[in-house]
């Protein structure tokens, strides 16, 4: 057995494991336009809203060129109201640094669309920031889509355009740190186990070689008799 070959294999295995670990760290998806899943949204009655939590999204990736585009179908309860059937609400309960925060430290910032009809509405980033009170969205906990007065609203899609990369975060920082730690432990334990196996195999080979001697008359290695060693 070629020991150097074994060491090359262990080095390759550890390198592959390290590469896998580094790739697993890249758990975010790099996107420009991001589509939220609103398939679970119920039919929104007047002044009801559907919340999109920011647990796994980074709202600071929304740029000054971003727009929120919402598509839907709507049913007017008593004829057209002459105003937008939908509104956007930027919400926070994490004590954001904005003058729009109320006495409890939360924000419920309603935003009107810059463009709308009975099927879609467009909201600008600047209007969202104005309603929220700051361009710093790090304290935003959810983005809500709401039906306005006299309308039943069925959501079809919600897209944020021109996002910075990594809008979607599959893991929180704490979850990612824990995953790194567990993966590192697995890599180190695997490397140690393979090294131990190599040492054991090396010792077995060494022991076998010391028990054989080359017999020139036979032209091959033969097992030595215990008495011949003495």
Mind explaining what this structure looks like?
With 230 residues, this protein is α+β, with helices and mostly antiparallel strands. The protein is built from 4 helices and 13 strands. The chain has helices spanning 3-25, 125-132, 173-210, 226-229, and strands at 28-29, 34-36, 49-53, 67-76, 86-92, 107-111, 115-116, 120-124, 142-147, 151-160, 168-169, 212-215, 220-223. The strands form 4 sheets. Strands 2-10-4-8-7 form a 5-stranded antiparallel beta sheet. It has a 4-stranded antiparallel beta sheet with strand order 3-9-5-6. Helix 1 packs antiparallel against helix 3 (173-210). The chain is rod-shaped.
Short description:
The protein has 230 residues and is α+β, with helices and mostly antiparallel strands. The protein has four helices and 13 strands.
Task: Please give the structural blueprint.
Layout: H1 3-25, E1 28-29, E2 34-36, E3 49-53, E4 67-76, E5 86-92, E6 107-111, E7 115-116, E8 120-124, H2 125-132, E9 142-147, E10 151-160, E11 168-169, H3 173-210, E12 212-215, E13 220-223, H4 226-229
Antiparallel strand pairs: 1-11, 2-10, 3-9, 4-8, 4-10, 5-6, 5-9, 7-8, 12-13
Helix pairs in contact: 1-3
Which terms summarize this structure?
230 residues, alpha+beta, 5-stranded antiparallel β-sheet, 4-stranded antiparallel β-sheet, 4 helices, 13 strands
Order of helices and strands: HEEEEEEEEHEEEHEEH
Low-confidence stretches: 21-30
Strand content: 25-35%
- The residue-averaged pLDDT reads 82
State the helix count: 4
Shape: rod-shaped
Task: Work out the radius of gyration.
Answer: 32 Å
The N- and C-terminal alpha carbons lie at a distance of: 29 Å
How many strands? Answer: 13
Tell me the structural class: alpha+beta
Strand order of the largest sheet: 2-10-4-8-7
